[in-house]
Write a structure and sequence with these properties.
The complex is a heterodimer of chains A (135) and B (139). By secondary structure, chain A is an all-alpha fold. Helices cover 81% and strands 0% of the residues of chain A. Chain A is rod-shaped and about 75 Å long. Chain B has one domain. The mean pLDDT of chain B is 81. The chains are: A mainly alpha (135), B mainly alpha (139). The interface between A and B is large, with 55 and 62 residues.
Amino acid sequence: MTPLQLIMVALNGLSVLVNNPAIGGSNLKFQEASELLSILSLLITRGEEGYEDLKAFAEEIQKMVDENRGPTPTEWKTMRARSDVAHETIQKARRAAEARQELADELDALEAISEEDLTEEQSARLGELTSQLAE
Amino acid sequence: MNPMRSLIRLQVLLVIALALQACGAANAVARAETTEQRAYAAYGEFTIVEEQAAKLVSSGQLDDRTVMAIGRADEAAKKVADPMIELTLEVTAIRSEYEEGGKDAESRFISAANELNGWVERLLPLVVNLQSATRREEQ
């Protein structure tokens, strides 16, 4: 096990520990700490993967330098294809997040109107949005 | 100070230290010698960061605002990264002409190489932005 993996296991352990109601994990501060620890452990895992990828790629560039050559069209094509796949995944997630955010903003605006001032149409939309966002 | 808060601060510092260490040991752009190698190294680093970001946004563990910030940073970097490919191939072709003693090839090579270097300089901070958007949750 690498030191990073060890840290990750420790963070996961702490996350479980602070989330345990028997030691007071149900109070808000502990809940927040637990979420933060989970995110940190996730980032460390991803960071480790990213580090290994960057290290391998730096070695690939070093090899290119040692061979005294530039990138080939095939190498460019492969790298471009990898980037396009990642780009599409990110942009798809972004579009979904933006759609959810729009609904949440609309819901906030309707909730700001007092119940007696809501039109029938607005009231129906409020119910629709509440159930959509709950899904 | 609250012991839990101290622990979290210590862990955040540790993550930052590890990230800095990773930056120094795995810098492909620093290893490149020619303009074309440098452009490919910058594009490759961008792709690796982009792949990490893609995994993270697919994990379902980020809030919508973070996903949107990553999406915006990725879009800005991609717009600069992709045109570099054609330009690099062009630089390689002019370099061959130059090495074979082609007429006016030297000035065309210098001009194309300078342009490509300019694109690399524009891309690198955008890659850092994408990396920051991906790691913002650490703070």
